[in-house]
């Protein structure tokens, strides 16, 4: 029997029921009542009381798929726009990614994955028998940087897919539009599929940097985007994710794989999803999420300044987490802590849950991520309380 490797991120979180959980990545969740209040006055609620609870459409409801096609379409003529036929609805983005990954690669294939990233994105292809090469984000002075020259050097004759996570989990890095267009130029030369996990879209925190478009909107035929309501919109209890792709053959393969896992997504969930993504409601949810994360980033900035001898970071340009490096006491701003031991001690001493990134996100033993911890920024009050505990742990060693 072939066992897939341990999913350290989830086993770490589930094994430590923190009283102050900062180990997640979603914005503070909305209740159904709160979601309804974000709609214009007089709007019917998100749950249709007359809904017949039969199986739904195998691909997802037409209304929801049409709205997602609209959100992923480019500006311009109608013939360039995507349609409901380009969209598959899944039970969350984790299923969207699993179906897409298992449909794209197999034994003998080569896969390039932005790194670090959500472990599913490189572990599943490897479990399928593919060779995976990391396209590493490098820490710059003010941002995490991805080298296109380095990426070109990773491409092989059997490279099938390049995957990005934009905005990136855990670093908060954002690849700009110029990089996305360069990726298309490179992929076009080698007939490579470009895959963008956009589960944190549209959480972009820089007020001055242009927001990159959904990858699939850029027109490259061999491209797909995945996403969900969970992270950026604060609706993780609504188990709806999606795959948006241009290639009919790829969509057919994914649909066939989906038949083995999902008859249909809950119609209740799809109804709430359509409500949340509607033109009248979506901008208000996004504004709420950006406000929460913006205030959390300000809290973290103050925390880093107060503890500059022990803490380093690059403020997140996007996503729902901050990536913070903890240094040993008395190291003169040099040696990183053992992040697994540090996060474990923080939990035991304070009840604060943070993610040790070197342990949970690193592929191999190269220790590039040693000392880094991931901290959720989606709940300002919880973060404020958690940072107090984290400072106590820093002072105690």
Overview of this protein structure:
The structure is a single chain. This protein is α/β, with parallel strands linked by helices. It has two domains: 8-31 and 283-395, Alpha-Beta Complex (Aspartate Aminotransferase, domain 1), CATH 3.90.1150; 47-280, 3-Layer(aba) Sandwich (Aspartate Aminotransferase, domain 2). Helices cover 36% and strands 16% of the residues. It has helices at 8-14, 32-37, 62-71, 93-104, 120-127, 148-154, 177-190, 248-259, 267-276, 282-306, 339-350, 357-361, 380-395; strands at residues 20-21, 87-90, 110-115, 131-139, 144-146, 159-165, 193-197, 223-228, 241-245, 311-313, 321-326, 352-353, 355-356, 372-376. It has an eight-stranded mixed beta sheet with strand order 2-9-8-7-6-3-4-5, with helices on both faces. A four-stranded antiparallel beta sheet has the order 10-11-14-13. The mean pLDDT is 95.
Content of β-strand: 15-25%
Largest sheet: 8 strands, mixed
Reading the helices and strands in chain order gives HEHHEHEHEEHEHEEEHHHEEHEEHEH
CATH fold description of the largest domain: Aspartate Aminotransferase, domain 2
InterPro entries: Aminotransferase_I/II_large, PyrdxlP-dep_Trfase, PyrdxlP-dep_Trfase_major, PyrdxlP-dep_Trfase_small
Domain Aminotransferase class I/classII large: 51-388
Pfam family, one: Aminotran_1_2
Keywords: Transferase
